[in-house]
Design brief:
The protein is mainly β. The protein folds into two domains: 89 residues, no CATH class; 365 residues, no CATH class. 5% of the residues lie in helices and 51% in strands. The protein is built from one helix and 22 strands. The protein is elongated, with a radius of gyration of 45 Å.
């Protein structure tokens, strides 16, 4: 009898304790049931759906769901043994009291967590793409370059008045050069360069590029004319007498005439490359765009790239030198018109390989490129001369050969020579705004084994070959074909604007 009564008493005490505990918990941690899953705000400020709310000691949290409200006392750590789990007892939402700073808000940001009762996996903050990397680009640059000089012999001379006709204009005596004994094309020239490219994917710099650049045609013009004073002559070495000699164009009492000399040069190049990035500090995350099914992050403020390129390169250089002489005999009235033309063309075709490194820091970037093209240069040489002698009755006689271009060296020739074309590019770029970039740089290009027109002149002449030709013409076959080779250097600065899309 005593034992059952004791058991009944214990059950009544336990029930009373449960009721009291439930009442206290309802006052402290009210909960309103809702069919909508509860939300939790993490330290990374990213809401996640959870089945049951976690209990934080950092303060009250309000769910973005307007049908759900919850208040957590800031001093919850004082009762860890009682409130280790939130109860599920229903409570009227009118009894929920929220701090004033959360009233009228649909989302409340919790302060930094001091501790939490139920551990969860932290969310790692990642950087994702805001837009894909530009796939295509094009640039246009203005070039101000200097090129190698072309050596030219003395082609025109003068002498003081009173010098006899046998000594006038002859080198080594009292003659002074009017044109030549110097170099052509050593000054600056302008040009342009156009480049374009396409990246094969978003994750690295691998892609296709093409470029074309041209240095504008440059010319040197010389003109000298006289009625006899001052003296004008064309010097040469007489292969028959082995002495210096000269042909008079203007001499007092004997000849009046003029000499015009024109020299021109032009160079252009075309290339196509396949680019491959060897190193780049850009990384990828999940998405679309790359071969492995990922898309790339935006470039970091500081970035280093290293790439390699290879592909064909074509270059072309042509020179011309034209001498036009007119002389009239004062005694007979006959006129002499002589033309000498020297032209060269150099066409290079080969394979090019190069490396490029770029360092980016904020909107600025520094780029360095080195390349080497290996191939063959096709050299073409064309020499022609013409003489027109007109009597005082107007009868003209035309003969092949001028003064420096005679039958012994006139004609067309071509041959192939092995050539190397190394190059260097150094540029500084600045990102103006989205999709636009300005550049300024220095460029250097070196081309081995080319022909220059002015360097093909043979100043030694067998006078028996000058029209009218004396047959048979004894003496050496001079002038002769020279095929003198030289190297071509082009270098200078560039100013460009690039568009990316």
């Amino acid at each position: 009898m005593f034992v059952p009564l004791l058991r009944i008493s214990a059950m009544l005490v336990g029930a009373s304790f449960i009721v009291a505990t439930t009442s206290v918990a309802d006052d402290v941690f009210p909960v309103v049931k809702s069919s909508t899953p509860l939300l939790r705000l993490t330290a990374a400020s990213k809401p996640q759906q959870v089945e049951t709310p976690r209990v934080f000691s950092s303060g009250p949290v309000l769910s973005p769901n307007t049908d759900f409200s919850m208040a957590i006392p800031p001093a919850l750590e004082q009762f860890p043994e009682v409130f280790s789990k939130p109860p599920s007892t229903e409570l009227d939402t009118a009894d929920v009291l929220l701090p004033s700073e959360f009233v009228g808000s649909t989302t409340a940001m919790a302060p930094a967590m001091q501790q939490y009762y139920e551990p969860y996996a932290p969310i790692v903050d990642t950087i994702t793409c805001s837009q894909p990397m530009a796939r295509d680009w094009a640039s246009l640059e203005a070039l101000v370059w200097w090129t190698s000089k072309s050596d030219v012999p003395v082609l025109a001379t003068t002498s003081p008045a009173g010098v006899g006709p046998q000594q006038a204009g002859i080198l080594g005596g009292n003659a002074q050069p009017l044109f030549g004994d110097s170099a052509l094309f050593g000054d600056s020239t302008s040009g342009f360069r156009f480049r374009m490219g396409h990246f094969l994917n978003d994750c690295d710099g691998s892609g296709l590029t093409a470029e074309f650049f041209m240095l504008g045609s440059r010319g040197h013009d010389f003109h000298a004319g006289s009625n006899g004073d001052p003296i004008i002559a064309r010097p040469f070495f007489n292969a028959g007498t082995n002495l210096q000699d000269a042909q008079l164009i203007a001499y007092t009492g004997s000849y009046r005439g003029a000499l015009n000399i024109n020299a021109e040069t032009r160079m252009y190049s075309l290339a196509g490359h396949l680019w491959g990035e060897l190193y780049i500090d850009r990384s990828c995350d999940c998405g679309e765009g790359c071969s492995d099914g990922s898309s790339c992050r935006q470039r970091n403020p500081e970035e280093t790239q290293l790439g390699i390129k290879f592909g064909p390169r074509f270059m072309h250089l042509d020179d011309s030198l034209l001498m036009d002489e007119t002389a009239v005999s004062i005694a007979s009235g006959s006129s002499f018109h002589l033309l000498d033309s020297f032209k060269t063309e150099n066409s290079f075709l080969g394979g090019e390989i190069g490396i490029r490194t770029q360092r980016q820091r904020g909107p600025f970037d520094l780029e360095l490129g080195l390349q080497l093209a290996i191939g063959a240069t096709r050299q073409e040489l064309d020499i022609n001369g013409l003489s027109i002698v007109t009597t005082n009755q107007g009868v003209a006689t035309t003969s092949p050969g001028g003064l420096l271009a005679l039958d012994s060296n006139s004609g067309s020739w071509d041959r192939n020579r092995f050539s190397l074309v190394p190059g260097l590019e150094l540029s500084i770029g600045y990102q103006l705004k989205s999709g636009w970039r300005a550049t300024v740089g220095y460029n250097l290009l070196y081309w081995t084994n080319v022909l220059r027109a002015s360097e093909q002149i043979d100043g030694s002449i067998n006078t028996d070959k000058i029209a009218p030709i004396i047959l048979p013409s004894p003496g050496p076959e001079r002038p002769s074909v020279q095929f003198d080779e030289s190297d071509y250097l082009a270098h200078g600065i560039s100013f460009g604007l690039e568009r990316q899309w």
